Amino acid sequence: MNLKFFVLLLISGSVFMGCVSSKPVRSTTVDAYSNYDEDLSAVRPKYKESSPVETAKKPEVKRVLSDQPLHVNRKLDAVVDTIASKNRAIRFASGYRIQIYVGNTRKEADDARLFTYQTFPELNPYLVYSQPTYRVRIGDFMTRLEAERYLQQVRSRYESAVILAEKIDLKKSLMVK
Known about the structure:
Helix content: 40-55%
Distance between the termini: 93 Å
Shape: flat
Radius of gyration: 42 Å
CATH topology of the domain at 92-173: Alpha-Beta Plaits
Oligomer: single chain
CATH superfamily of the domain at 92-173: Sporulation related repeat
Strand order of the largest sheet: 2-3-1-4
């Protein structure tokens, strides 16, 4: 059986070897581009040569700026003014405050407010009383990131300080740096 298998393998190998071409195979893309010799000078753009003296003789353009404001459209100005007045009327927005004290003692709440006045004069403290609990919240922060910066400093004194989402005063929030 091994001999029959070996003979069959030998015959099939010689048949397949006979099908192989003796010429080396060349890439058709390389041949197509290596023999390219078309003349494109007829379609290239032609420019008139200019001397450096001709380019230096160009007159300078002077721009005159008027003192009057540039009005695009009076209707547009009216619309922008109404939008600006509506934006000025907005006093409150959603933001964040840091709650530093929660308890039943008024004196401790006042001490927390005093700590805020002395340590962070740019932050406004707010005392909220809902019977029988006093809450002291500080700051008017637009973003949570701003509140987190102050939270680390406040936690040195008040470990239970947390950030709360609240409505804040926009004018006061602009004063916080």
